[in-house]
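Board notes (copied after class):
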Amino acid sequence: MSETFDFIIHGGTVITPGGPVETDIGVRAGKIAAFGKLNPSAAAHAYDASHLTVLPGCIDEQVHFREPGPTHKEDLETGTRGAILGGIVALFEMPNTDPATTTQAAIEDKIDRATGRAWTDFAFYVGASPENAEELGTLERLPGCCGVKMFMGSSTGTLLVADDENVARVLRSGSRRVTVHSEDDMRLTERAELVAGGADVSMHPEWRDVETAVRSTQRLLALARKHHRRVHVLHVTTAEEMDILAANKDIATVEVLPQHLTLAAPECYERLGTLAQMNPPIRDGRHRDALWAALNAGVVDCIGSDHAPHTLEEKARPYPRSPSGLTGVQTTVPLMLNHIAQGRLTLQRFVDLMSAGPARIFGIANKGRIALGYDADFTVVELAAKRTITNKWIASRTGWTAFDGMDVTGWPMATIIRGHVVMRDDEVQDKPLGIPVRFQETL
């Protein structure tokens, strides 16, 4: 008697831990149950991936969805809908909401809000503050929590841990990897007068200069080593930091963003104005080249989007009153596939950065690779597809992307989460089925 499955994906080139394989995949109870030549009629549901490439589901470990708070920009439903349209199966949402996510009640509230509304699987960061530093070891272990997020420099929201004493208190509390926005707030305050009376947005990387980033990251690594705590440094933008981080890989993992790999100053500010404004800023070509060099040398561990939506009306305010942040959860996969097409990146390295890397960094259970017993999460792509990224395609409430009008090669054709096709051919399918991500450290 032939085996039966809940779902079969067949006909595609599957990117396994050992490389590309022409095989079908059988799914039972949301898990990968079999490989080989399978009969699609042996399953209640099937997906024909002929002429397509089946990747492990892509994970975005840095998004800001604004719920609770200013949901006119984004909420958990619209943000995760954009994610599946962009080929993302799971994501971690940041704590700088209103109110900030700094308590058990706040984390549980976000999980309640996401249940039945989130299209992707999800987890939430707890925000570090001087007020909750001693409680973080307990909070980081809550179900649905992906760990602690610490802002060493002021950005969107009120969360801030600026001085060494309080950074040390955060690092001493708990054991999971601490995720960090690394900019030196004292230097930001000192240099704020550069733009205080109004300036051109091209001054953004001058105000938030290289030294602001380097000083913070040096302080962070010294304190992390002193207190024996692993850290994950987000959205690294400078050549100098990459050199420092390469010498500290035993305690530090590294994220870079497609924005910093794709755009460069001054051209991006001349063309996009405040639509290119984000923290840390997009810098010149020397730094972009250094990010690529670090990525290809293995210093970079993952790619996130830092999806941080603001309305066009808000972004049109005169700099520096214009808010920092770009949409990104929907465009990360197409942008990085385009870099593959242009020869800057291999497909195997893409999988490491967007699937295996986040799983490894955060200890995600059963995600990040196509293997028996793992969640049946797949990002199905057409590597040769020619598409144009447009504002019209963007699901975010803000309705814009800095990459509007950009032609790309490579496109997500389907997003499959635990054996459910939730996006097919740029159309949302089924219903929101997202559940909290599970972690190995909390089992």
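Comment from the instructor: The first strand starts at residue 5 and ends at 10. The first helix runs from residue 76 to 85.
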